[in-house]
Each structure stands twice: as C-alpha cells, then as structure tokens.
Amino acid sequence: MESRVFAAACPEYQPGEVREAVERIVAAFGGVERFLQKGRRVLIKPNLLLARRPEEATTTHPEVVEAVAALFVEAGASVTIADSPGGPYNALTLSGVYRRCGMEEAARRVGARLNRDCSSGKVRFDGMGSREFDVITPVLRADVMINIGKMKTHMLTYFTGAAKNLYGVVPGLTKAAYHSQMPGRQEFCRMIVDLCCCIAPDLSIIDGIEGMDGRGPSGGRARRAGVLIASENPFAADLAAMHICGLQPERSPVHCFAAAQGLTPDDARKLKWIGDAVRPLDEPFIPASGKSRRGESVVNRLPDRMRQPMRRLLLGAPRISQRCVGCGACARACPAHAIVVRGGRAAIEKKSCIRCYCCHELCPVRAVQV
After folding, report:
1. Cα end-to-end span (Å), the chain
2. Residue 306: domain span
3. What are phi and psi of 204, to 5 degrees?
4. Cα 344 to the chain's mean position, in Å?
C-alpha cells in the first residue's frame, strides 16, 4: 500500500507557479525518466466532465494539464490527452469539450495530441466483483497514465478526485448503462474501486487550486483550496484531498471500501506527507446533499431486494427548474430512460428515476435541482 502523498501549495493558475509545482511533484516520485522506463506513450487523463470554461471549476484546469504534458513532451514522450465526457462519445462532442475546457490550446502550445479515436475495448478484472469493463482505446494503448482529477464534492459518491475520475475511461453512454446495472450507491462505489485498481494509473494528481463544493460535481460553487495533491495511489490522494478541504472520509463509500481492502490508510494522519505543509481549509467544503446521504445510510442497511424501492421512497428525486432549455442532455444521459423532453422542456418520471443524479451532473445550464 503506497501511502506517500505530495502536497504542493499553488494559490493561482499562473503558468510559472503551476509548472514549478508540477516539476516538484514529478521529481518527488522519481522524475520523468522513471515513468518513461515503462514506455514513451503517455496518456494524460483529465476530468472533462462536460463543456465548461476553466473558471467554472467543473473540469481540470488546462494550466495543470499543460504543465504535466510539457514535462513529458520535453523528455521525448508521445503525449495524448484523453477523456470520455458525459453523454455521447464521438468526435463532434470531444471537439466541443476540448475547445470549451481549454484543452485545445493547451495541447497546441506543448505539442501534445488530443484523442479523437472513439473506439473502446474490453478488460477483465476480478476485485470485489468479477467484472468486464469497457475502456476507451487510448487507455489500452498507453505505456504510462497520468490521472489528473479535480477536487469536488459529488451528489452520489460524496467526493470526486482521483479515483472517481477514472470513471471517465468508460466510453460515453456505457457509463449510463453501468449506473442502470448498479443503481445503488454502495454497488456503484464498489465498482469504482475495482475500476481504479484495474486501470492502475502511474501517478494521480488532484487539481485543488480551485475546486467545487456544494452540489458538485457540476452544479456547486467554485472553492479555492490553493493546492495540487499527488500520489502513486489514487485512493491515498483522495484521502489527502478530503483532509485538506475538510470533508469526512468515512462518508465516502469509495474511501471506505478501499480502506477495508488495505488499499489506503483509513485516516489522513497515517499518510506519509511530503512536499509543502498545507493546512486544512478554515472553511471546509460543504458536502453535496446531507438529506440524500442520510436516506442512503438507511437504504444501505436493508436487504438487497428492498434497496431500490426504498431508494425511490427515501431519496429526493431530481427536479427540473425553469432554467431548462430543452437541450435533451439529461434525457440522453439518463440510465433509467426516465426523462423525456416535451414542449421544449425536460420532465422526469419519478417512479422510474433511480436517483443516480446523472441528469444533475450533466446539465449544461444547471437546470436540474436535487
């Protein structure tokens, strides 16, 4: 169990400051050449949830991605930036996301490649469950993978940083299918732990210079934490990030399942901290939804056959506000097919809703309320 975590204080997205922080992080874990001993095809996997501007704090900031890519390009590596955003996975969607999130310019400046190959392949893994994951092709072809997540609260998983970021290796609407197959929060988070172990990134970095609290991962408020967190162990990176932003790791099922398997310490005090002495925030991050989480804790104590009916009874269903523009993004992403667009506005069939909150996560205009 790798428990080293590097914390780099970095208050702003100033290119020189970000580059210096990234250089210190990579050097602390053996330097670029150590990673390239595995091969020179490097994949950078940021959080590109949907087409949002960098200042909206929904996606990994391009300055961080650019700084990491530059280090590897300068060492002679072939660097690809790839993610599967929410919704359809095709070249048109990718182009819009890359452009809006600032990845197009970042890649151009350093000579990295943006992935436009929308194929995928199957990977078998035996963890907490015997699973077959559908994974985007650039992940399968990479020799080295650098996972760059975003420090955010999450409506379903409580926190998203390094481990949950790897759900983006699952292509497009296959993510919705997984939600449908595993509608319960605990089932879904067990799968995330297995997926993270299956993909096993070589280094995970969490962009916490500016994160998001409240109704994350896309509908919350931007929160400045002024830190980059890195570890070879994505679960350890998440534990460190939750400590710094004042969240409670015991409320994160991903952390709890990983700790129970010995994949990470159960307490941030047991991590091996290196780098800068970064104190926890004076004003902690506000979790996504206390009411839903209390209901979920009741549901998780029930027999399996009762869980989904009680989820519908106890957990709040999403609501569509007047901000809805009828774009249909929520309907396309809904694993239960519980959303239709009528008369230019989305409507949710509450009896069919599985409370995965994908609609809230992927609404481009923040029209979904929980």
Report:
1. 37
2. 290-369
3. -120, 130
4. 31
Confidence (pLDDT) at 291? 47
Please state the length of the chain.
370
Residue 91, exposed/middle/buried by CB under 10 A (0-12, 13-18, 19+)? exposed
Domain count, the chain: 2
Q: Are residues 302 and 270 in the same domain?
A: no
Look up residue 344 and give its DSSP letter.
Answer: T
Residues 198 and 132 in one domain: yes
Q: What angle do CA 57, 219, 208 make, to 5 degrees?
A: 30
Same domain, 246 and 307: no
Query: For 219-267, how does the pLDDT look when each residue is reduced to its tens digit (9 = 90+)?
Result: 999 999 999 999 999 999 999 999 999 999 999 999 999 999 999 999 9
Is 280 part of any domain? no
Q: Are 301 and 185 in contact (CB under 8 A)?
A: no
CB 339 within 8 A of CB 350: no
Kindly provide the residue ranges of all beta strands, DSSP E only, lying in 220-307, ordered along the sequence.
Answer: 221-224, 227-231, 272-275
Token pair in block for residue 84: 């599967």
Integer CA distances (angstroms), 360 to 38, 205, 313, 327, 368, in order: 39, 25, 19, 14, 5
Alpha carbons within 13 A on the beta-carbon side of 311: 23
pLDDT 10s digits, 33-69: 999 999 999 999 999 999 999 999 999 999 999 999 9
Count of CB atoms within 10 A of residue 304's CB? 8
- Reported as half-sphere exposure (CB side, CA atoms, 13 A), residue 98 has a value of 24
Burial label for 300, CB within 10 Å (0-12, 13-18, 19+), is middle
